[in-house]
Amino acid sequence: MIYTDMEHLDRYRGICPQLDTAIDYLLENGLELLVPGRNEVDGEDVFVNRFHYTTMPREEAAFEAHLDYADIHLLVEGREFIGVTPIEKLTVTKVDREADNIECHGPVETKIPMEPGKVLIVFPEDAHMVKIENGGAVKVEKAVVKVRV
């Protein structure tokens, strides 16, 4: 897991070529031009999903993890907490290889405050729970960069 500010994102180049591509894209293009839905960057290796939702109490949110992709979470608008726990500390309830999604449950180990300008990168070992309220329910406009690792 990496938690940083957008202005420091370039420090994390060199982890893998696809992450470098994602970082370059974000620093060169920002988030304002992203359309809702899928935005192409580099085929299946790097793409961006932009979407919105309303945050909810932690008890209503769910963990997910991925087999093949890291996620770069960025907020365009709103605020939320993202809960993160190493997947080996959780109970896996469903694995969907086709969708690259693992459902799991258990306690949140770390609660990351997200707002515009913050960046959270979670890797396959980092189960994450999005949509957690931070000061009440609010609408969140978000981008998630999917990076094949």
TrEMBL record:
NCBIfam families: YhcH/YjgK/YiaL family protein. It comes from the Bacteria. This is YhcH/YjgK/YiaL family protein. GO terms for cellular component: cytosol. Gene3D superfamilies: YhcH/YjgK/YiaL (2.60.120.370).
